[in-house]
Description:
The longest helix is centred in the middle third of the chain and has 22 residues, at 171-192. Strand 4 (30-33) and strand 5 form a beta hairpin. The two termini are 26 Å apart. By secondary structure, the protein is an alpha+beta fold. Strands 1-2-5-4-3 form a five-stranded antiparallel beta sheet, with helices on one face. The protein is built from 13 helices and five strands.
Amino acid sequence: MSSRTGRCRATARPFVIPLLQRPAVRWPQGILEKGYIFVEIPSNLTTGERIRLLRESRGMSRPVLAGLCGRGPDWLKKIESGERELRSHALLMRLAGALQLDDLQLLTGSDAEVATPVGGGRLTHSSMPAIWEAVMARPLLWDLPQTPPDPAALQARVDEAWRLWHDSDRNRTQVGARLPALIRDAETAVRALEGSRRRAACVALSETYRLTGQATAYIAPAEMAWVVADRALAAAQASDNPSAIAAAAWSLGNILRSTASADEAIGFVQDAASLLRPHLDGAPADWRGIYGAL
């Protein structure tokens, strides 16, 4: 989603986030009206305070924003608290890009008449073109292998990618490099297999798309985020696996929440929790974890 500025005010400047078209509703950081969130930025805020306000308005955690800028969360915490002054123009531009701003003055509070544009309003990442191609250019006809894929081996690759996402200090880059092949192989396996082996491949495909959503958060265009979340849920439903369905529902619920569809998000995850609840007695720990997350 791109961002734009609104009209100037004496004491505050509105930061505008385009969202889905819907009637005006209350939002934690402002008012959503005709598809836009208007976030008031008092003119007396420091750069660090502005960064925090804009970060929270996007529902972005401190580690995520810092990571998009190639820094650690402690660095960003010191910037936001005013303990450390931010003088680097390059870092300001990276922060503005990660926050999807189109004008650096939203961060600096400068009253200069000439705006400082932020190119593209979005950070790019080296892994995105290949991931975009794998997701958005999915073929209608598949060249299926002569030897059926092994769903257990596929799931092992997915599990390893998830471990890398949680453990690596360069997770976005390292996981992003694996995702295109993993997406294509999981899609191929679902089409090549039948019965219980196909359902197992559907679980792997759903988890692959969930990981894609995590790895491309805040750098992927909004339309791809919706596609990825929807495919994760569709694959999970095809697997008939309650845990996979619930996990995919959690991901799609977050997409709904991030677009100010709070009521829809709550109802959606409550339904998913109800689906999983009868299976919790004696269930694996990760099933209980998913239930708790919902």
